[in-house]
């Protein structure tokens, strides 16, 4: 085990350097040896899962192979873990620091202590060199994850005072610029960086805190304050930023009124009152630029300013505050964010069994309920890992679960949820309705919503002409209008009626899969739909687990010409029209949102009711895991949990998880079919997963162990039929041959020259046969007309 140690009370420089070293040496884990600064604690409350952190208590010292100490060079800064430095079996001890005045007492094998503004800079320089070398060798661009670049940029910003402290160097500036190129988030940096204030601004800060007025709406805090000074004060924007942080306000209007003279003589006739207002807002949907524009101000949605003279300062500030409050939209509720149904266990369930359930469903924690299905506690993966580490796999989870819980209701608003998570460092919040557990909101749910809010704001400001091939706006109104304009009025009416039925039951209805993909790939062409996939999310209520079948049954009553097929095992139903005068040939598949588990590779999956997110996660590729909400509220909302839009723009096929092809080999054939049909490339890592699955021999083994493999029988046959019936079959077969994927059919089947020649001869034979049948058909048609004339010699009507 390779560990990175931060000093006690870790700051952003220590954390950023530690994360950077983990990128340099993959597989390393970070140990926070003794707490962290409040701002770092708040940051990790939301972003902990993005970094390879590990608890000190869960580490077996005998398993430690190497240690790296960042932003410290003395043992006394490491707290209790300093004793690990004396382990006799350590292979390597590395020290990175930028405090030249400290004499190191650590016997390190590698030491790098240099005069830079932040230790993170030293790590970034090594990272940059490594990434540039790898890019040159492979001709493929390597990049940091935005979360990695952001925390490293924060480390440099904070320790150099955003390059203003005396110890800052040009190396820090270069490192920071490179991290910005790698995708560091300015929004997150601005949220956690703390710039210094001048003496005058510090005095004004005290006055502002004393006179601040605030109100709360929809869980958002809106604050305003008016300060009076003798003259203009520079740096009010820094003061506003500090006020927002200190008061935890979501929006602030800071006014400053002062005397201003337009001439040097300062005579009373030339002196006027000037009012400067600085606005800051973190609330999605507000627009300070539009608010300030009528008074001659301007800026951005979230930051703007104005300067006016000879107005009533307090009245003007109050009017602007009222205008800002009027802009605030209703934020999402827990019901809209939560995952449902919730996977739960009993208090008597063993730790080993709980671990197996986590492995099966990929969760990071489980809810524990009593015999009355009342919430008794929560146990996290971390709790289970520690119990297993100490050999307590047989013990009941009630001894390890957290039972003093913070809970929320379905109507709890996003700002309150975010506040609870940050304040109490909670990764998941149970949602209770009438005492029953109906859902759970996780840190991931909150982060995703915040990210999507930012993306929606960014997209709304983007010119459509600069969006490249996918020239559409992601706003719900735009997506809904695009869908309505691309499909026939009859199908739109069908979808609308299905959405109305879902809303009457309190369900959410989504159109998913290929229809959404094709809608976005070719946004200007008519969408000819013969196959529509709908998913009903019943919010996890046990009575709604057959929501898909129930919706299909009610819809069939409105469309009696359709045939209803029900597949209870998979909680799905289908409405079918064949050569209908209105719909033609149409298949509408309606399913309850579900998750699936493959008991063994290439088996038929076992399905259970779940949420829309889990339903999309079970799909084959990111471009097919997109959904559009059809029901209100938020109808037209585009759901993209896994980066499908990015892959559409990059024109690539990317799988959702590494074991996808082992679980279902037909996805290999689907990957090839979509790639050739859409003109996309198979993403390199996805191709690697395909080759690994094929070379593992798993498909041959499971046929011997389990007797049969449905995916290698009916489903693979159907997928191969799709390919051979398509006009692009030759290109698709060549790609399957290059991947050696024909071995799914037979272990010795390769697309060699002899087989390829046989296929081309077969194609030629079928083409000749088709032409012969066309000629025969024409002759029979002529013969039929001639026979008809001969049987009607005395008809008074002329033959056509």
Please summarize what this structure is.
The chain has 800 residues and is an alpha/beta fold. 42% of the residues lie in helices and 19% in strands. It folds into six domains: 2-192, inorganic pyrophosphatase (n-terminal core) (Alpha-Beta Complex); 199-327, Diaminopimelate Epimerase, Chain A, domain 1 (Roll); 339-447, CBS-domain; 486-645, Beta Polymerase, domain 2, CATH 3.30.460; 651-749, Hydrophobic Seed Protein, CATH 1.10.110; 752-793.
Detail the topology: elements first, then pairings.
Layout: E1 2-6, H1 12-24, E2 29-32, H2 38-47, E3 66-70, E4 92-97, E5 110-113, H3 119-138, H4 146-160, H5 170-181, H6 186-192, H7 199-211, E6 213-217, E7 220-228, H8 236-247, E8 251-261, E9 271-281, H9 288-292, E10 298-299, E11 303-309, H10 313-327, H11 334-337, E12 344-345, H12 351-361, E13 365-369, E14 375-380, H13 381-389, H14 414-424, E15 428-433, E16 436-442, H15 443-461, H16 476-486, H17 489-504, E17 508-512, H18 514-521, E18 531-537, H19 547-558, E19 563-567, E20 572-580, E21 584-592, E22 594-597, E23 606-609, H20 612-617, E24 626-629, E25 638-640, H21 644-650, E26 652-653, H22 660-663, H23 666-678, E27 681-682, H24 684-695, H25 698-706, H26 714-725, H27 729-739, H28 753-790
Parallel strand pairs: 1-2, 1-3, 3-4, 4-5, 7-8, 12-13, 18-21, 26-27
Antiparallel strand pairs: 6-7, 8-9, 9-11, 10-11, 13-14, 15-16, 17-18, 17-24, 19-20, 20-21, 22-23, 24-25
């Amino acid at each position: 085990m390779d560990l990175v140690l931060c000093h006690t009370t870790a700051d952003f420089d220590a954390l950023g350097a530690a994360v950077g070293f983990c990128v340099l040496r993959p597989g390393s884990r970070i140990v926070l040896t003794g707490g962290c600064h409040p701002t770092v604690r708040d940051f990790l409350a939301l972003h902990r899962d993005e970094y390879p952190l590990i608890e000190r208590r869960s580490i077996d010292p005998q398993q430690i192979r190497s240690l790296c100490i960042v932003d410290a060079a003395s043992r006394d800064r490491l707290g209790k873990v300093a004793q690990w430095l004396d382990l006799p079996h350590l292979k390597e001890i590395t020290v990175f620091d930028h405090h030249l005045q400290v004499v190191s007492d650590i016997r390190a094998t590698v030491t790098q202590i240099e005069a830079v503004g932040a230790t993170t800079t030293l790590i970034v320089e090594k990272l940059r060199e490594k990434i540039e070398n790898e890019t040159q060798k492979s001709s493929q661009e390597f990049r940091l994850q935005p979360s990695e670049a952001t925390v490293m940029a924060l480390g440099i910003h904070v320790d150099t005072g955003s390059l203003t402290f005396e110890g800052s160097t040009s190396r820090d500036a270069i490192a920071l610029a490179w991290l910005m190129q790698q995708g560091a988030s300015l929004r997150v940096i601005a949220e956690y960086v703390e710039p210094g204030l001048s003496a005058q601004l510090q005095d004004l800060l005290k006055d502002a805190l004393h006179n601040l007025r605030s109100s709360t709406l929809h869980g958002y805090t809106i604050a305003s304050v008016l300060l009076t000074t003798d003259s203009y004060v520079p740096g009010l924007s820094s003061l506003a930023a500090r006020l927002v942080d200190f008061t935890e306000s979501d929006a602030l209007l800071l006014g400053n009124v002062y005397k201003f003279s337009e001439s040097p003589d300062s005579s009373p006739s030339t002196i006027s009152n000037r009012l400067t207002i600085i606005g800051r807002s973190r609330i999605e949907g507000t627009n300070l630029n539009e608010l300030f524009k009528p008074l001659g101000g301007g800026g951005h949605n979230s930051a703007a300013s104005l300067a006016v003279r000879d107005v009533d300062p307090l009245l003007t500030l109050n009017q602007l505050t009222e205008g800002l409050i009027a802009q605030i939209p209703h934020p999402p509720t827990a019901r809209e964010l939560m995952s449902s149904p919730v996977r739960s266990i009993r208090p008597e369930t063993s730790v080993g069994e709980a671990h197996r359930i986590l492995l099966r469903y990929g969760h990071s924690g489980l809810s524990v309920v009593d015999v009355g299905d009342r919430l008794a506690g929560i146990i996290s993966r971390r709790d289970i890992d520690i119990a297993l580490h100490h050999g307590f796999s047989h013990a009941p989870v009630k001894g390890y679960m957290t039972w003093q819980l913070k809970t929320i209701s379905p109507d709890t608003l996003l700002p309150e949820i975010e506040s609870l998570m940050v304040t109490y460092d909670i990764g998941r919040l149970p949602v209770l309705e009438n005492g029953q557990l109906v859902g759970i909101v996780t840190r991931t749910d909150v982060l995703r919503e915040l990210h999507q809010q930012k993306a929606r704001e960014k997209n709304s400001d983007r010119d459509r002409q600069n969006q490249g091939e996918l020239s559409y706006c992601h706003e719900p109104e735009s997506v809904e209008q695009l869908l309505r304009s691309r499909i026939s009025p009859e199908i739109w009416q069908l979808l609308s009626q299905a959405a109305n039925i879902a809303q009457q039951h309190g369900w959410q209805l989504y159109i998913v899969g290929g229809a959404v993909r094709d809608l976005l790939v070719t946004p200007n062409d008519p969408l000819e739909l013969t196959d529509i996939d709908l998913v009903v999310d019943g919010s996890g209520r046990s009575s709604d687990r057959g929501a898909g079948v129930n919706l299909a049954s009610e819809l069939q009553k409105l469309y009696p010409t359709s045939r209803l097929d029900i597949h209870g095992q998979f909680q799905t139903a289908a409405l079918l029209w064949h050569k209908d005068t209105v719909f033609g040939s149409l298949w509408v598949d309606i399913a309850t949102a579900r998750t699936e588990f493959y008991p063994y590779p290439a088996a038929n999956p076992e399905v259970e009711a779940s949420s829309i997110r889990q339903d999309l996660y079970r799909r084959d590729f990111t471009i097919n895991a997109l959904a559009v909400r059809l029901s209100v509220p938020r109808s037209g909302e585009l759901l993209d949990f896994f980066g499908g839009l990015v892959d559409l723009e990059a024109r690539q096929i990317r799988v959702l998880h590494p074991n996808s092809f082992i679980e279902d080999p037909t996805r290999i054939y689907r990957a090839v079919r979509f790639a050739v049909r859409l003109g996309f490339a198979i993403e390199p890592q996805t191709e690697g997963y395909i080759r690994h699955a094929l070379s593992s021999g798993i498909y041959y083994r499971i046929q011997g162990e389990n007797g049969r493999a449905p995916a290698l029988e009916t489903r693979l046959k159907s997928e191969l039929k799709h390919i051979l019936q398509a006009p692009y079959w030759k290109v698709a077969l060549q790609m399957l041959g290059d991947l050696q994927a024909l071995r799914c059919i037979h272990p010795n089947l390769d697309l060699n020259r002899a087989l390829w020649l046989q296929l081309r001869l077969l194609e030629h034979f079928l083409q000749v046969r088709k032409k012969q049948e066309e000629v025969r058909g024409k002759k029979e048609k002529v013969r039929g007309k001639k026979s008809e004339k001969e049987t009607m010699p005395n008809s008074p009507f002329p033959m056509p």
